[in-house]
Amino acid sequence: MGKTQILDGNVVSEAVKEELKPRIEALKEKGTVPCLATILVGEDPSSATYVKMKGNACERLGIQSKRIHLAEDTTTEQLLKVIEELNKDTAVHGILLQHPVPKQIDERKAFEAIAIEKDVDGVTSWGYGQTALGFGIYPSCTPAAIMQIMNFYGIQAEGKHAVVIGRSPILGKPVSALLLNANATVTTCHSYTKNLPEIVAQADILVAAVGKPEFIKGEWLKEGAVVLDAGYNPGNIGDVEYESCFKKASAITPVPGGVGPVTISMLLKHTVDAAERG
Amino acid sequence: MGKTQILDGNVVSEAVKEELKPRIEALKEKGTVPCLATILVGEDPSSATYVKMKGNACERLGIQSKRIHLAEDTTTEQLLKVIEELNKDTAVHGILLQHPVPKQIDERKAFEAIAIEKDVDGVTSWGYGQTALGFGIYPSCTPAAIMQIMNFYGIQAEGKHAVVIGRSPILGKPVSALLLNANATVTTCHSYTKNLPEIVAQADILVAAVGKPEFIKGEWLKEGAVVLDAGYNPGNIGDVEYESCFKKASAITPVPGGVGPVTISMLLKHTVDAAERG
């Protein structure tokens, strides 16, 4: 067994930010301040923390953060109105609606209302379709982060068998699509999958996006697999059992400090991209 | 070995058409004649034949067929203008642009120009995204046909391992998405896939959408697999080697008379759906 490489997301994240700094400066010289509008609905403490982290990350880099906080009892119609206004606001380049929203809101309808040119978080069906067909400009940020980590560390997808566990609209499905477009053979697994360990055992690249703490066991892995853990469960615990997976993997993302920080950097990058596109 | 079931597409196609007849009558009683506009660009004989088959199938069922034939040297701009006019024409419920178009045309741009509410052939990225996220109304017709055949013959996807060979925007990708949404574990393979026979050997459901005659061999199959052949190569030859696959499969679509006729029926169904939506 060789040494397992730790895929440090903070290093990748810093590299992305360094690349963005001169682009943000150039935009400001031309009179444009990149601006991300974040919408938080209600008082869910995790959501509040995530939105705050994203807003703060913007501001540290010189991206304007327009923070909108709506009441817990906001209706779908009220939220749609806010999104419509942000769509029209030429000073706003990107719109992020923090997921999940309170239960009375039609989340999909709200996501779909975001103008595609401002969908920097990659939540619309149209953006998903463009990404899957190979010409999307703002893939969902966590899938984009996974690809960024692979690119940064020189991990090739082409010809590899990638196994994705999870099929959510913003994670499992788009990361499957991106890996397929990168010429991996892709198997997408989920709660109905039978013999999951047998399928995981075939993975050259394993993406864990299942949302269950320490669900994936090292004993399931092929020796030398690359493990990308997009899980982020309470207590900073990933979807993979880190100790046992570390022993089998050739490379692995830690939690925290793996996919998470790169996800935020992808959001910043997409916002700068959007500002450059005008 | 049990008897292999032949999944007769003509039977499925007729059942779909029977279900459409009273719906078309009801529309006509209200003064609406469902109308599909077909656009053929250039003189490719196969494309001309396909468009003609589709137009004739419409007319036999009482759907109006508006047939547009553009010259071989049509530009992208000229084609976009035709599509724009059809988008605005309230008498037209569905628009089909026959693929492939001559080389000077930006096919993707032309597909994307079709209004989503008239995209009955399921070629736009937005339509694809909606389908993949589970709320599409007009999936691409061949993938829709494959699901229709499975439903008709009572073949369950849930919990099965489906292997799709091919990843085109109108076949491999959307059929993978539909099977995933039907709770199959889905592996999508393509030209970069290594050890294809080993992966095919895991398939409970195999979809051949590779465009190579008799590419898939019976010896690769798991005993009892369901084989859906979406290939349609010159000389009415499918993507699977029929004789050898028939011996291993529990059910198989013939070529011709399998997926093909149901594909056209799905186009008719989507056109009627669109007319009903107004």
Automatic annotation (TrEMBL), chains A, B:
Name the record gives this protein: Bifunctional protein FolD
Gene3D superfamilies recorded: Leucine Dehydrogenase, chain A, domain 1, NAD(P)-binding Rossmann-like Domain
Listed EC numbers: 1.5.1.5, 3.5.4.9
Function comment: Catalyzes the oxidation of 5,10-methylenetetrahydrofolate to 5,10-methenyltetrahydrofolate and then the hydrolysis of 5,10-methenyltetrahydrofolate to 10-formyltetrahydrofolate.
Catalytic reactions of this protein: (6R)-5,10-methylene-5,6,7,8-tetrahydrofolate + NADP(+) = (6R)-5,10-methenyltetrahydrofolate + NADPH; (6R)-5,10-methenyltetrahydrofolate + H2O = (6R)-10-formyltetrahydrofolate + H(+)
MF term (GO), any: methylenetetrahydrofolate dehydrogenase (NADP+) activity
Pfam families with a match to the protein in the record: THF_DHG_CYH (PF00763), THF_DHG_CYH_C (PF02882)
Annotated positions binding NADP(+): G166, R167, S168
Annotated keywords: Amino-acid biosynthesis, Histidine biosynthesis, Hydrolase, Methionine biosynthesis, Multifunctional enzyme, NADP, One-carbon metabolism, Oxidoreductase, Purine biosynthesis
Family to which this protein belongs: Belongs to the tetrahydrofolate dehydrogenase/cyclohydrolase family.
Domain Tetrahydrofolate dehydrogenase/cyclohydrolase catalytic: 7-121
Pathway(s) of this molecule: One-carbon metabolism; tetrahydrofolate interconversion
Quaternary structure and interacting proteins, as annotated: Homodimer.
Xref: InterPro entries: Aminoacid_DH-like_N_sf, NAD(P)-bd_dom_sf, THF_DH/CycHdrlase, THF_DH/CycHdrlase_cat_dom, THF_DH/CycHdrlase_NAD-bd_dom
Secretion signal, residue range per the UniProt entry: none
Residues annotated as domain Tetrahydrofolate dehydrogenase/cyclohydrolase NAD(P)-binding: 140-277
